[in-house]
Write a structure and sequence with these properties.
Blueprint (H helix, E strand, L loop, with lengths): L1 E5 L8 E5 L9 E10 L2 H8 L15 E8 L12 E4 L2 E2 L5 H4 L10 E2 L11 E5 L3 E3 L7 H8 L1 H15 L7 E4 L5 H12 L3 E6 L2 H9 L4 E4 L6 H8 L5 E6 L5 H7 L1 E9 L13 H4 L4 E4 L5 H12 L7 E5 L4 H10 L5 E5 L9
Parallel strand pairs: 10-11, 10-13, 11-12, 13-14, 14-15, 16-17
Antiparallel strand pairs: 1-2, 3-4, 3-8, 3-17, 4-5, 5-9, 6-7
InterPro entries: ADH-like_C, ADH-like_N, ER, GroES-like_sf, NAD(P)-bd_dom_sf
Organism: Microbacterium sediminicola
Pfam family, one: ADH_N
Length: 355
C-alpha cells in the first residue's frame, strides 16, 4: 500500500511516499481504507523532533481520519465491511478503571493513532473496532468527508474544553484565542451553537475578517491591539468574560485570568505557547477566579460532538483540501500559519490489484 513514512526527524525530506506492507489487524480491530485525514500541529512537531516520548521512526502520521471499512473484526460491535466510519485516535485497553470511567488517556496502555501508532497518512490503517463511529456519508462526497475528518481532535477537544469541562451556557461571554487555528475555529462554532457571546483573538486583518464572517461577535486583532485584556474589559463594560478558553498555555494563562470576571473561570486545554508560566496569585484568589484543567476527553465527548456535527448543531471550518500526493504542500501551508480552519488531505486512490 502507499503511505507517507517518516524515517528520521527534521524537515519535509524525512517523510517520503513509499510502498509498504498493509497492516495486519488484531481480533478486535478493523482495517479501514482512508478517505480523508485532517492535519494537526502535532504532525509537524513530531516530524521535526521526538516530542512524544514513545513515538519512534519509521512512522506513519495522521491522527484525524475518516475511512471505509475494508476488513471487519470478529468483534460483535464491529462496523460492517463498506461502512464509512469516523475514527477516535485515542487507543486504550478498554477494561481498566480509567477506561471504564471514560478517561482513556489515563490508561496505562494509552496510545494515539498517528502519534504512537501508525496513522492515516496511508491507504490502509488498523484501528480498534470500538474506536469507530459509523457516519451517514457517501464515500465519494469529498467535501463532507473533509468536514468529518476535521471533527475528532479539534472538535472533540473544543467540545471537552468548552462544554464538558467549562460548562459554557447560553448568554455567557467566552474569549477564544486563535480563531484561525483548527482548534480555535471549532471552538468558536461550538460556543455559537450554545448561544454564547464569542470574543475571539486573531493576528492580522485578513483573519479578523474571516473570524467575523464565521460568526464571532467581536474579534480582536492582536497585531493592532496588543493589550487584548483591556479590549475584552472594554467590550464587557469592565466586567470581564465569564470564561476564557485557553488552548494556548504559556504566558497567555496569566492574561486570561485578568480578562475573566470575578468568580469566572479559565479552562486550560493546551500548551502550544509554552509548558510553563508565572501567575500573579492575587489575580486568582482575590476575585475568586478559577482555573480548570481540561482533563481527559472520553467516548461520551466524542459521541456527543459527532452527533452535534452530523445533526447540524455546529459546523467545522475548512481552510483547504489537498490530494494525497500533495501532503508536503499541505504541511507547508500548516507551518506557514497562513490558514484559517482545518487543512485536510484526501486518501490515496486505490492501488491496482497485483496481477
Amino acid at each position: 500500500m502507499r503511505a507517507w513514512v517518516q524515517t528520521d526527524f527534521g524537515g519535509p525530506e524525512v517523510r517520503r511516499q513509499i510502498d509498504v506492507a498493509a497492516p495486519p489487524a488484531a481480533p478486535d480491530e478493523v482495517i479501514i481504507r482512508v478517505l480523508a485525514v485532517a492535519l494537526n500541529r502535532l504532525d509537524v512537531l513530531q516530524r521535526t523532533a521526538p516530542v512524544i516520548p514513545s513515538m519512534s521512526v519509521p512512522h506513519i502520521a495522521g491522527m484525524d481520519m475518516v475511512g471505509q471499512v475494508e476488513l471487519a473484526s470478529s468483534d460483535a460491535d464491529s462496523p460492517a465491511v463498506g461502512a464509512v466510519v469516523l475514527v477516535d485516535p485515542v487507543v486504550s485497553c478498554g477494561s481498566c478503571d480509567y477506561c471504564l470511567a471514560d478517561t482513556p488517556t489515563y490508561c496505562a496502555e494509552f496510545a494515539t493513532l498517528g502519534s504512537t501508532r501508525s496513522g492515516g497518512m496511508a491507504e490502509l490503517v488498523a484501528v480498534p473496532a470500538r474506536n469507530c463511529t459509523v457516519v451517514p456519508v457517501d464515500p465519494d462526497d469529498t467535501a463532507r468527508l473533509a468536514e468529518l475528518a476535521a471533527v475528532p481532535v479539534a472538535g472533540v477537544t473544543a467540545w471537552r474544553g468548552l462544554l464538558s469541562a467549562g460548562s459554557l451556557t447560553a448568554n455567557e461571554t467566552v474569549v477564544i484565542p486563535g480563531a484561525g487555528s483548527g482548534l480555535g475555529a471549532a471552538g468558536v462554532q461550538i460556543a455559537l451553537s450554545r448561544g454564547a457571546r464569542v470574543i475571539t483573538l486573531v493576528s492580522g486583518e485578513a483573519k479578523r475578517e474571516r473570524a467575523l464572517a464565521s460568526g464571532a461577535h467581536e474579534v480582536i486583532d492582536r497585531t493592532a491591539t496588543p493589550d487584548w485584556v483591556a479590549e475584552v474589559l472594554r467590550l464587557t463594560a469592565g466586567r470581564g468574560a465569564d470564561m476564557v478558553w485557553d488552548h494556548v498555555g504559556g504566558d497567555f494563562l496569566g492574561a486570561a485570568l485578568r480578562a475573566t470576571r470575578p468568580g469566572g473561570r479559565v479552562v486550560l486545554s493546551g500548551t502550544t505557547a509554552g509548558l510553563d508560566t508565572q501567575l500573579h496569585l492575587p489575580d486568582l484568589y482575590q476575585p475568586g477566579r478559577n482555573i480548570l484543567g481540561h482533563g481527559s476527553y472520553g467516548r461520551a465527548d466524542m459521541a456527543a460532538a459527532i452527533e452535534a456535527f452530523t445533526s447540524g448543531d455546529f459546523r467545522v471550518v475548512i481552510d483547504s483540501v489537498w490530494e494525497f500526493d500533495e501532503l508536503p504542500a499541505a504541511e507547508r501551508k500548516l507551518e506557514s500559519n497562513d490558514f484559517f480552519g482545518k487543512i485536510v488531505v484526501l486518501g490515496p486512490p486505490r492501488s491496482p490489484d497485483p496481477k
